[in-house]
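Help!! Second protein's tokens look totally different from the first
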Amino acid sequence: MTAPLRIVIADDQASVREGLVLLLGGLPGIDVVGAAADGEQAVALVAEHRPDAILLDLHMPVLDGIGATRRLAAEHPGVAIVVLTTYADDDSVLEALRASARSYLTKDADRADIARALSAAADGLAVLDPRVPAMLLAAARAPVRAAAAPDGLTGREAEILGLIARGLTNPEIAARLFLSNHTIKTHINRIFAKTGSRDRVAAIGYAHRHGIGEPGT
């Protein structure tokens, strides 16, 4: 008999995490060997159990899914990474794929789709949400930024901070970048945390001090 696919599940929402454990653990041929509430726990569980694949939420505390993907790719390259997120327009997916995630699904995928993606990833194949190719095409067409953003800001976060500094509102930024208002708000919360800004005014001051949002940036 074929050995079961051994997986780790990582999601900071207990209800989602426990639900995935029950759904996937009940499928034949899958053995859920661990469940993590943040990226650090996920890396530790992979080191402990050496699973075939991990189902990894992108947005978690302590160490997010992108950071965890980079760690796992460096420390456990044999473990297939399937990232899971809520929104199809979440550009963090692109960073995760660039960091060596093999597959991507949104959380509205059913358990059969998730199981197939995990199995395919463990075999070295990629399974992408049907909406991802358009995102990848848009990213390929976007201008490449030569300089790294400060304080761990991603390229997208620096771009959004620059638009804030130019006076654009959240709906205006969402329309310009073809993202949802919710995604923009999520990015802005991360920008505030990374830059130590309490509000929009402080973030604009930070942008000006670092030359973000000025012509040519």
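Here's the second one for comparison:
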Amino acid sequence: MLLAVRHSTRYQYDAPVRESVMELWMQPQKRANQRLISFDLELDPAAQLFSYADTFGNAVYHFDIPQPHERLTIMARSAVETEEPTALPDGLDRGEWDRLRSDFVRGEHFDFLHPHGFAEPTAALSAFIAEKKLEELRARDPLNAVRDLSQAVYEAFA
């Protein structure tokens, strides 16, 4: 499927601002089932764009408008081609648990595997795990364990 995406952000200030410094995450990612055909950013007032890739592979654009202005318009235009995702298998080999414990995977996903910020273990989380018998999911293959975990979390919402 071919998609044309247009996103417009407009800032209108009550009085002129001296400067605007912005970072934008607006470019669609390239993925296995998604191909980025084109991407364009238009700024008014005009500014020089710089970019870098963040740790998740997102294109981050940044700019500075160092003169007074009363409005700022950011127009992002993209063309993206998508394909239907391939169906997931019914399950995975239980040996995949070993791969998931590998140093490579643990290094690649370090930020997601350690408590930090608001993601800290709590007594309520331990009680939820015990009540739903989530430790038993390790006896299943990783894919079905994730499916069952997602279902348990979904069903826990009131």
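Reply: Different proteins will give different token patterns, so don't panic. The mean pLDDT is 93.
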